Amino acid sequence: MAETKTQFEPKIIGFLCNWCTGAVPTWLVHAGTVSANVHPIRVMCSGTVDTVYLLKALLAGADSVMLGGCHPGDCHYVSGNYKARRRVAMLKQSLNRWTG
Questions:
Q1: How far apart are CA 16 and CA 32, in angstroms?
Q2: pTM of the model
Q3: How many CB atoms lie within 10 A of CB 85?
Q4: Cys-Cys link to 46, which of 23, 31, 70, 84 (CB 3.0-4.6 A)?
Q5: Other CB atoms closer than 10 Å to residue 89's CB: what's the count?
Q6: What is the SS3 assignment for 42?
């Protein structure tokens, strides 16, 4: 019996800001500009995403998570993107210590 190799298709959960990264049109996803492996969750601001949600997505079986926000200084809610950046930096630091 011949073995069939399947190509790895990662499941990526993307928490995307409604005002910038969440505004990617569906036709761009199908055109290959944005990975079809990203399962988008639209949020009003990247600063509203608690790191617990990122961890829960990983624990639920996601291969990766991403948090997309506005450019620095360009946040629709003034400083939400800076809050998100700090939270993700702390999460990365904690995960690095935990995983060694």
A1: 18
A2: 0.80
A3: 16
A4: 84
A5: 10
A6: strand
Residue with tokens 């629709």: 76
**Cα–Cα distances in Å, from 2 out to 5, 6, 25, 93?**
10, 13, 41, 45
pLDDT per residue as tens digits for the range 66-83: 998 998 889 999 999 999
One-letter amino acid of 80: G
Here the tokens at position 67 are 């948090």
**Cα dihedral sign for 81, 73, 21, 95?**
negative
Q: Tell me the longest C-alpha to C-alpha distance in the chain.
A: 60
Q: How far apart are CA 67 and CA 41, in angstroms?
A: 10
C-alpha span between 38 and 29 (Å, rounded): 9
Q: Own/partner pairs for 48-51, CB < 8 Å, 24+ apart?
A: 48/80, 49/15, 49/84, 49/87, 50/87, 51/87, 51/88, 51/90, 51/91
